[in-house]
Hints:
This protein is of the alpha+beta class. It has helices at 20-49, 64-67, 72-105, 111-127, 129-143; strands spanning 152-155, 159-165, 169-174, 179-183, 190-192. The protein contains five helices and five strands; from the N terminus they run αααααβββββ. The chain has a five-stranded antiparallel sheet with strand order 4-3-2-1-5, with no helix packed on it. Helix 1 packs antiparallel against helix 3. The radius of gyration is 30 Å and the shape is elongated.
Amino acid sequence: MYSMTTAEPITPPDISAVNLPGVLISIGVGVAVWLVASFLIGGIAKRVAAGTSFFKKPHFRWAAPALRALDHERREQRANTIGALLRSVVGVLIAALTIMYVLKNLNVDIAPLLTSVGILGIAIGFGAQQLIRDFLAGIFITLEDQYGIGDIIETSEVVGVVESMNLRITRVRADDGTIWYLRNGEILRVGNRSQGTYVPPEAPPADEPDNAHPQQAGE
Length: 219
């Protein structure tokens, strides 16, 4: 009589299907691509920070608004910000592709994993909408050169000098010395008094003082 409780033997995974050379090659290629990409991004950022004329050629005219000549500190700050952003994006892409190839060479079915990662990414995206909004706004503020360190800006909340900025936060010192931390995604309107020809409004005339010696009655 056949017993329903008979347990089938557990077969171990087929180790022979693991492509160890492929794993090593995938990791090596990923590291090599990352090093080359970091070197190229670092070189471009240094050239932009130094005020290179490479991007002033006619076929780079489309990038002139984002890469026009600026003072050294501001140009260096923008170059470092854009370089860090590019390194982060390229690093995430290379790491994701390398992990996929490593798992494939380890004979792991990555289809369910990709589905789980996609669902997790959607959940994180919904939970971090404001953070993503701040980062995207910071990217466009930097690329479009809306303002930079040392500029006097006017927003709906404050008027002051930009002391520092990154992809999420802009720090502004107001006239009274107060330090304001503005989230880039919440800056809906900004005016840059350091650009263009800003003219401060004229102060209203002071009331004329009364005569020091009023005339006496009958004089």
